[in-house]
């Protein structure tokens, strides 16, 4: 059974950093493109970042470009999101997602981890 | 910046058929955008129903189907059930390893 479990969320002050992790199990991790998708309170889904199987292709939404960095460790079946210079508008539930094909959106989803940016 | 458009809300009677759409503020959606559809009920993580335009995810009932209708991607629910009352989001591949979600459609079954 595919499982994705996010961790690392919490309360952080504006301008500070936070690193999210996603632990994957139940599938061959390096066969999947991985994504981060977020959802602000009461709002819709927003794609944040994606990384291909061997990290050769990486994309970030304009709203986080230059502040967030996605990475993966295939040996540890783990996905990461380094979030720097956090702003109030980054407050959201952050989901980890996995897709089987390069062009496909997330097929499998984790339960999410909450990030709150506030002083 | 291209915006992905969805109907904010829709209503369907139990047993009825409804088609939700996913368009672009500029241009047409084609299979080259690899549209996917995701269902979300309050307090839950999203669940992927359809990917690559019309491929159903494992375990998804066949009353859900995806297609391209004219210039938009479409999700059709045939024989809607009460448990289908949810928010539905489409996502499009925009190239260069980037995706965009639509604003979502709140579907009411009554």
**What low-confidence regions of chain A span 5 or more consecutive residues with pLDDT below 50?**
none
Strand content of chain A: over 45%
Mean pLDDT of chain A: 97
Estimated radius of gyration of chain B: 13 Å
Order of helices and strands of chain A: EEEEEEEEEEE
Question: Strand count, sense and closure of the main sheet of chain B?
Answer: 7 strands, mixed
Level of helix content of chain A? under 10%
Helix content of chain B: under 10%
Please compute the radius of gyration of chain A using only Cα atoms. Answer: 13 Å
Strand content of chain B: over 45%
Number of helical segments with 4 or more residues of chain A = 0
Give an overview in words:
The complex is a heterodimer of chains A (119) and B (110). With 119 residues, chain A is mostly beta strands. Helix content of chain A is 0%, strand content 50%. The radius of gyration of chain B is 13 Å and the shape is globular. The model of chain B has no long low-confidence stretch (mean pLDDT 97). The interface between A and B is medium-sized, with 27 and 25 residues.
In short:
Chain A has strands at 3-7, 10-12, 18-25, 33-39, 45-51, 58-60, 68-73, 78-83, 92-99, 108-109, 113-117. By secondary structure, chain A is mainly beta.
What are the main properties of this structure?
heterodimer, A: 119 residues, mainly beta, 11 strands, 50% strand, globular, B: 110 residues, 7-stranded mixed β-sheet, 53% strand
Helices and strands in order, then pairings?
The complex is a heterodimer of chains A (119) and B (110).
Chain A lengths: L2 E5 L2 E3 L5 E8 L7 E7 L5 E7 L6 E3 L7 E6 L4 E6 L8 E8 L8 E2 L3 E5 L2
Parallel strand pairs in A: 2-11
Antiparallel strand pairs in A: 1-3, 3-8, 4-5, 4-9, 5-6, 7-8, 9-10, 9-11
Chain B lengths: L3 E3 L2 E4 L4 E8 L11 E5 L6 E5 L3 E2 L7 E6 L2 E7 L8 E9 L2 E4 L3 E5 L1
Parallel strand pairs in B: 2-11
Antiparallel strand pairs in B: 1-3, 3-8, 4-5, 4-9, 5-6, 7-8, 9-10, 9-11
